[in-house]
Amino acid sequence: MGDPHTKQNVIKILYTDTCPFWKETLQLINEVATDMKTKVTIKKVKVKNEEDAKRLRFPGSPTVRINGVDIDPAAKPTEGFIGCRIYVNNGRAQELPPKEMVKSAFQRLLK
Fold it and tell me: Is 1 part of any domain?
């Protein structure tokens, strides 16, 4: 058993089967964790229907939350949305979070 006083950092990837970009996002998170020599627990959360989306306040797939906080500082609260998520990076839309956003979120949100 580990030290009970050690905080565990949990990264959740919320995704749907209709948007395949969560797999690349998972690789990206693993890369950043390795680069930054950070130990994290990654949990994949499949959003199966609109009920799940509402309960999780899901803004689209893939969504990454570190210790419960969305990695995108510009993320707006949502009532739940089944569909692909768009991230904006230097004015360009893309289907997965940019590496710099993930790195910055690690620095900001990890305990």
Answer: no
pTM of the full structure: 0.90
Residue 28 in any domain: the answer is yes
Per-residue confidence band for 6, with pLDDT thresholds at 50, 70 and 90? low
pLDDT digits (tens, 9 = 90+) for 40-88: 999 999 999 999 999 999 999 999 999 999 999 988 878 887 889 999 8
- Does residue 2 fall inside a structural domain? no
Identify whether the C-beta of residue 17 lies closer than 8 Å to the C-beta of residue 50: no
Number of structural domains found in the chain: 1
Query: SS3 breakdown of the chain: % helix, strand, coil, rounded to 5?
Result: 30, 25, 45
Report yes or no on 54 lying in a domain. yes
